[in-house]
C-alpha cells in the first residue's frame, strides 16, 4: 500500500523558561501507510487514527522538562526528535483491537501529527455522543471536564452558598468549575488575565464577579474586596504569590483543590509560598489531585454534563487554532494567556 | 480575709524575633484573697485555683505577637502588663460553679501565677485519674496528647506498615505520634536537634530511626536515606525548609498533618516553601488542624491512653523546671530546643 505524507510537530529539545515556537518543529518529512501491518507484534492490538482535534494543556509544559527532576518520576518527559503527545479527538482508520473499529470516533492520548498509531489504548475512549461539537472531547467532555468535575465535587466537598474563588478562571478547567459552583448555588469569583476574559466570565460564564489580576497590585486587598467574608473553596490553577494571597483570605475549614500551578511551570525555581501557617490557624484542607485518579467517574460525569450542554445550562468557550502548522503557536500562547477559553488545534475535518 | 502574695510571670511587651527571658517579668507584687467574693457578678461562676504545673507550648510564641497580623483573628494575643496564660494543672480552692468543688484537681487554661481565678471554664477538665503523674495533664493526658491522637488518627488516616516521619520528634506531641504510629505497626523515623534527643527517640521512645537535623546539610538526601521508599505520613511541627525537603520525599497519596511550624514562629517573614507542586504530582493531602476541633474525643482518648501508660506501652518524657521563677527561661528554651521532652513548670507541690 502506498504511503502518504504525515505532517508532524516534533519536540526539538528540553525547554528552560518559557516555551517558544522554535522549541518545536512543524514538518512533513514523515510518511505513513494508512493500514496497520498484519504481522507485527507491537501493532497487534493497535489502532490507526486520523487526528481531528488536538488539545493544548498546561501539563505539556511539564513534559518538556529535562528528565531527572522531581517531576519525571510522575510524568514521562517528551523525547526530543519525536512528535509531541497529548489529548486529542480522532477517527479510527484501522484497528487490531476488538474494542475499536474503522470509523469509530475516539478521544484520548494521541500524537501531534495527522495520522497516529496508538498502542497505549487504556486512555482511549469511544465517543458515543456526536450531537455536540467533537472538539468538546478535548475540553468539557474530556480531560479538563473530568478535572473540573472531580476536583470540585470530589476534592472540594462544596456546599450551597459557599464562597468559591477560581484562578485562571476562563481556562479549560476554570470556566467549568465556576459554572458547576454556580449550578450548586455558590458565590463564585474568578480571576483572569485580560478585560476580555473578565467580561466573558461575567457575561457568558455566569460568574458573580471576576477581575483582571494584571491590574491588581495587592492581591490580598483585592480578595478582601471580593470576599469580605473570606473564601470557602479555592480552585488552584496558578500557584506562587496567588496562593499566598488566597491563604490569607481563606475561611476556617476552607478547602483548596490544587489542580495545577501554571504560573510556576516556566520558572527554574518556583516562588516560595510563605503563608502556610494559615493552614493551621484556619484548619484548611489542601489537596493535590490529578484527573487520572478519577476517570472511573467519567460515565457519571457524562450523565451530568450532557443534559447541561444540550439545555444550555453550561456553556464552553473554545479557542480553536486552524491547522497543525499553527499548533506550536497555540501551545506557546497557553503560557502567556493568549488563548480565550480552551485552546484546541483543529488538524483535520471530520 | 487576709490576702496572700501571688507570684506572677507578667508579659511585658509584644515580641519580635526570638523571645527572651526579659520579655517577661517574674514578680511578687500582686496579692489575692484565697476565697472567691460572695457578691461579685463576674465571679459568680468562677473557680479559684492553686496552680501546680504550667505547660510551655509553642503556640505561646504566637500569642506574644503584636495584634493586627493574620494570626490575631484566631488567637487572642497576650495583653502586655498581664500574666501569661496557658495550659496548666491546678487544685480548686474555692468554687462558685457546681461542676467543680474545693479539692478537685483540674487541667485547662489558667495563668502563670500561683493562684488564679478562672472564669472561662469551658476548657477546664476535672482530673479523674490520679494514679499517673499529675504533670501528665499538661502533656500526654492534656492538650499535646489530644493533639497527637487526633492529628495522627483523625487527620493522617494511618495504616499498618506505612512510612511515618515526624519532625520535632522528641517534643511534647512528636514523641507521642511516633509511639502511636509504632503501636499501629508503622515504620517511624523522627528528627530532633541533639544527639541526646536522637538517642532517646531510639532507646526510650521506640522509634525505628532518628537523626539530628543540625548535623544534616542536605535534608532531601537525608530523607532519601531513611525513606528509600518515600514517606506516607508526615507529621509537621517545623515548617519551612523542612517541609520543602519532605515534599520531595512524599509518596503518592501521602498525607501531611500540619500541627505547627515552630521553625517559623520567630521569623518576621516565613521561609518560602517552593515544592508545593509535589502536592499535585503525588496527590498529597495536606491538612492543618488544631486540637480545639477534637476535644470531644478526649474521653475516647483517655480510654486508649491510660492503659498504655499503666502497662508501659507508651512512655512520656518530661522536662520539669522547678519554680515559677524559672518559667520564663523554660518557655524561652522551647524555641531553641533546650528542653528534652515536654517542657513543664512546677509551680507548687500538691
From TrEMBL, chains A, B:
Keywords: Oxidoreductase
Segments forming domain Enoyl reductase (ER): 27-345
Entries under InterPro entries matching the protein: ADH-like_C (IPR013149), ADH_N_2 (IPR041694), ER (IPR020843), GroES-like_sf (IPR011032), MDR_fam (IPR045010), NAD(P)-bd_dom_sf (IPR036291)
Superkingdom of origin: Eukaryota
GO molecular function terms listed in the Swiss-Prot or TrEMBL record: 2-alkenal reductase [NAD(P)H] activity
Protein name stated in the entry: Enoyl reductase (ER) domain-containing protein
Organism: Malus baccata
Amino acid at each position: 500500500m502506498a504511503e502518504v505524507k504525515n505532517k508532524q510537530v516534533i519536540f526539538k529539545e528540553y525547554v528552560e523558561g518559557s516555551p517558544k515556537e522554535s522549541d518545536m518543529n512543524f514538518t512533513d518529512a514523515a510518511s505513513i501507510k494508512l493500514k496497520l501491518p498484519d504481522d507485527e507484534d507491537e501493532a497487534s492490538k493497535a489502532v490507526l487514527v486520523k487526528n481531528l482535534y488536538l488539545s493544548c494543556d498546561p501539563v505539556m509544559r511539564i513534559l518538556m522538562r529535562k528528565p531527572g527532576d522531581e517531576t519525571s518520576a510522575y510524568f514521562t518527559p517528551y523525547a526530543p526528535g519525536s512528535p509531541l503527545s497529548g489529548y486529542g479527538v480522532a477517527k479510527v482508520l484501522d484497528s487490531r483491537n476488538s474494542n475499536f473499529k474503522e470509523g469509530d470516533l475516539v478521544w484520548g492520548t494521541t500524537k501531534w501529527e495527522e495520522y497516529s498509531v496508538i498502542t497505549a489504548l487504556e486512555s482511549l475512549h469511544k465517543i458515543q455522543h456526536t450531537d455536540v461539537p467533537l472538539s468538546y472531547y478535548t475540553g468539557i467532555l474530556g480531560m479538563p471536564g473530568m478535572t473540573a468535575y472531580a476536583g470540585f465535587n470530589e476534592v472540594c466537598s462544596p456546599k450551597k452558598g459557599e464562597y468559591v474563588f477560581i484562578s485562571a478562571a476562563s481556562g479549560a478547567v476554570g470556566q467549568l468549575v465556576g459554572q458547576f459552583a454556580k449550578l450548586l448555588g455558590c458565590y463564585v469569583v474568578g480571576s483572569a488575565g485580560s478585560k476580555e476574559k473578565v467580561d466573558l466570565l461575567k457575561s457568558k460564564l455566569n460568574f458573580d464577579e471576576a477581575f483582571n489580576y494584571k491590574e491588581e497590585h495587592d492581591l490580598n486587598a483585592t480578595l478582601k474586596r471580593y470576599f469580605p467574608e473570606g473564601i470557602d473553596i479555592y480552585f488552584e490553577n496558578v500557584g506562587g504569590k496567588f496562593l499566598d494571597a488566597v491563604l490569607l483570605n481563606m475561611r476556617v475549614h476552607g478547602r483548596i483543590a490544587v489542580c495545577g500551578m501554571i504560573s510556576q511551570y516556566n520558572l527554574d525555581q518556583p516562588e516560595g509560598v510563605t503563608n502556610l501557617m494559615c493552614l493551621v490557624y484556619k484548619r484548611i484542607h489542601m489537596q493535590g489531585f490529578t484527573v487520572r485518579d478519577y476517570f472511573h467517574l467519567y460515565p457519571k460525569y457524562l450523565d451530568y454534563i450532557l443534559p447541561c450542554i444540550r439545555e444550555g445550562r453550561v456553556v464552553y468557550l473554545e479557542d480553536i487554532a486552524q491547522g497543525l502548522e499553527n499548533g506550536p503557536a497555540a501551545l506557546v500562547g497557553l503560557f502567556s494567556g493568549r488563548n480565550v477559553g480552551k485552546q484546541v488545534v483543529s488538524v483535520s475535518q471530520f
